[in-house]
Write a structure and sequence with these properties.
mainly alpha; 77% helix
Length: 401
């Protein structure tokens, strides 16, 4: 069959079309969540006209409101609106699979070598410092720019550093949301004339929300009663995917608390994978694939990937029919403002521990981190170039030392 005939067949099937377009985006979407939204806008809105501008903006607002990976949820939402529930799943698969395969391969490669003294691994750790510092700066300007929100961020960072328990970060987020419901009462009403045509029955949406909450509540109990490593892995990654606000780099401290203290993987292996994850296209949440593979091989990669993304699918499908009324609630808006500020604080704490304390050992490490940070913030180089430069510089520093 000729390529033109294949493309015609794809276009005739909404399912194949969604899979085809999302896979192309999964192979080419570098640069993190904000860049992903730009790629989506060009491909889905400007080029293919699958949604109008107002509907797309409304969908982006919904996904930024929900916990989980915002760009992945936007893709799932577009796929769902285009081709129903299966379309949402196919949109996620196409966008995510390329980075899953790359990070799985990287994990298998890591398992065949001794990384304890590898210079490029140390370089990747320094890369992580520079990238997270940029994320803290960028998110702080947007989400913690006032005295009130900055205070929440600093308090959250301090508590995170002083109280390093598994559930401390989740409790901080919950308390911040509670404070925000009453502290931020002057949030302006947003336009409430959504143009999104929802193809999700309310019964299916409610079922997804019930399943989301049920898994969140039941999994820890089942995991504690059994002795299955796979179940424990699923529980940990599902919990992170369910409760992380801000997406992207914010998963770093939450995942670190889940996998390093129990001894599933070492801090060095964790940070090396996080640095490598910056160089691949698609969502940063596929870092979970690498972690699962390093812990339980191929089975662990599958379990961790499904667990961390499942909440995103359940939440976006469950929330779509109710978004119009939800976004108009001032208390919900106020809670989100405080939660986002707390997330900035948690990420700031992670910049110090585990990143800084592990990667910045000598003055040369700090000098390299400053250079990479400058290339990111001032010269606006893409993260994948920073990763390559950092890894190469790590090797050079090893030989010079």
């Amino acid at each position: 069959m000729k390529p033109a005939s294949i493309l015609q067949s794809v276009k005739r099937s909404p399912y194949l079309e969604v899979l085809w377009v999302s896979t192309k985006l999964g192979l080419t979407s570098f640069g993190g969540p904000i860049a992903h939204l730009g790629y989506f806008h060009h491909e889905y809105i400007q080029k293919r006209k699958w949604m109008d501008e107002k509907s797309y903006a409304d969908l982006v607002a919904l996904c930024q409101f929900l916990p989980g990976p915002a760009s992945s949820q936007v893709g799932i939402g577009i796929g769902t609106i285009r081709a129903g529930l299966l379309g949402g799943a196919l949109a996620w698969l196409g966008f995510t699979l390329p980075s899953i395969l790359i990070l799985l391969f990287f994990a298998l490669l890591m398992q065949t070598m001794d990384i304890s003294s590898a210079g490029w691994i140390h370089g990747l750790k320094i890369v992580a410092v520079a990238i997270v510092a940029q994320a803290v700066l960028s998110m702080g300007k947007k989400l913690a720019a006032t005295k009130s929100t900055a205070s929440i961020a600093f308090v959250a960072a301090s508590i995170t550093l002083l109280w390093q328990e598994v559930y401390s970060q989740l409790l901080i987020i919950f308390l911040a949301g509670l404070i925000g419901m009453f502290a931020f009462k002057t949030v302006s009403q947003q336009e409430n004339n959504s143009l999104i045509e929802i193809r999700v029955p309310r019964s299916a949406a409610i079922l997804c929300l019930i399943l989301y909450v049920l898994l969140l509540v039941v999994l820890p109990t089942i995991s504690s009663l059994g002795h299955s490593q796979s179940l424990a892995l699923f529980d940990s990654f599902y919990r992170v995917g369910s409760l992380v606000f801000g997406g992207g780099h914010v998963i770093l401290p939450l995942l670190e608390r889940e996998v390093v203290p129990p001894g599933w993987i070492s801090k060095e292996v964790f940070l090396a994978g996080y640095g490598a994850a910056q160089a691949v296209p698609g969502p940063l949440f596929t870092f979970a694939t690498y972690l699962g593979a390093m812990f339980l091989g191929f089975k662990g990669a599958v379990v961790s990937t499904l667990a961390i993304f499942l909440p995103a699918y359940l939440l976006i499908v469950g929330a779509l029919p109710f978004w119009k009324s939800l976004r108009a609630n001032l208390k919900v808006q106020g809670a989100l403002i405080a939660i986002n500020a707390a997330v900035v604080g948690i990420l700031l704490a992670a910049l110090y521990n585990p990143l800084w304390t592990t990667a910045i050992v000598h003055s040369t490490d700090f000098a390299l981190a400053l250079l990479l940070f400058g290339l990111l913030v001032v010269w606006k180089l893409p993260p994948w170039i920073i990763v390559l430069l950092g890894a190469a510089a790590g090797e050079v520093l090893t030989y010079l030392g």
